[in-house]
Design goal:
Structural class: mainly alpha
Number of strands: 0
Number of helices: 3
Strand content: under 5%
Radius of gyration: 10 Å
C-alpha cells in the first residue's frame, strides 16, 4: 500500500493530483476502489497534503 500512496504523493507533488476529489477519481480509474483501507489511507494522505499547501 505504501507504494501506491507514494505514487499519489508523487502525483500531488507534480501537480497531477490537486485535491481529494482527484485522488478519488484516480483510485476509481486504476481499480483500487474495492479496498476501503486504501481509499481511507489515500484520503487521509490527500487531506494532509492539502493542509500543507
Amino acid at each position: 500500500m505504501k507504494g501506491t500512496l507514494g505514487l499519489f504523493i508523487a502525483a500531488k507533488n507534480k501537480g497531477i493530483i490537486t485535491s481529494v476529489q482527484d485522488c478519488m477519481w484516480s483510485i476509481i480509474e486504476v481499480g483500487y476502489y474495492p479496498y476501503d483501507e486504501l481509499i481511507a489511507a489515500v484520503l487521509k494522505t490527500a487531506k494532509e497534503l492539502e493542509g500543507n499547501r
